[in-house]
Amino acid sequence: MSIVINEHSQQELVERCIEKEEELKFAKVVFTVAGIWGIAITLPLYFMYNFIGRQSPPVISHPEFYYGFAGVTLTWQVVFLLIARDPARYRVMIIPSILEKFSYVIANLVLFANQRMSASQALPSTTDLVLALLFIAAFLKTTSAPQIEGND
Q1: What's the confidence (pLDDT) of residue 3?
Q2: 9 — pLDDT class (breaks 50, 70, 90)
Q3: Residues 68/109, Cβ–Cβ less than 8 Å
Q4: In angstroms, how far is CA 21 from the centroid of its own chain?
Q5: Average model confidence (pLDDT) for the chain?
Q6: Percent of the chain with pLDDT over 70
Q7: Domains of the chain: which residue ranges?
Q8: Mean pLDDT within 115-124
Q9: Best label site of 68, 126, 129, 149, fewest CB within 10 Å?
Q10: Cα–Cα–Cα angle for 66, 72, 78, rounded to 5 degrees
Q11: Peptide bond into 63 cis (omega under 30)
């Protein structure tokens, strides 16, 4: 079986590829920035355990939760970078990425509303709110990669 591609259909194919790449560019930029930013602000947590306890008493009494938070957060940054490489292929992973951002924002909002967190402590979570909104936009702008049928 041979496939004949005429000049018109070849041009159409090129145009669709260009459109698809433009569609994915937004998601690629958003998730690359999110991943790099997240690594830059999360990695130092591994070296700030005692400092945070001194600056924001009381001292941290459960290091397993502290380092667990840092590890899970750092892992999500790697997921963001993975999504950035191929947003169409990993589009479904954008949904839990949105939840990851909103869970932190909502937790801080509840803590702040109950006066268990100061405004200066809650303010940095606005970055996560902005990223959550950008993730939603990226999800809406990105279409899933076509599925290739296997020869089962």
Answers
A1: 58
A2: confident
A3: no
A4: 19
A5: 88
A6: 86
A7: 25-141
A8: 91
A9: 149
A10: 140
A11: no
Question: Where is mean pLDDT largest: 1-5, 50-54, 108-112?
Answer: 108-112
Widest pairwise Cα distance in the chain: 73
DSSP state string for the chain: ------HHHHHHHHHHHHHHHHHHHHHHHHHHHHHHHHHHHHGGGGG-HHHHHHHSSSPPS-HHHHHHHHHHHHHHHHHHHHHHH-TTTTGGGHHHHHHHHHHHHHHHHHHHHTTSS-HHHHTTHHHHHHHHHHHHHHHHHPPPPPPPPP--
From the number of C-beta atoms within 10 Å of its C-beta (0-12, 13-18, 19+), residue 101 rates as buried
Closest CA to 87 of 15, 138, 36: 138
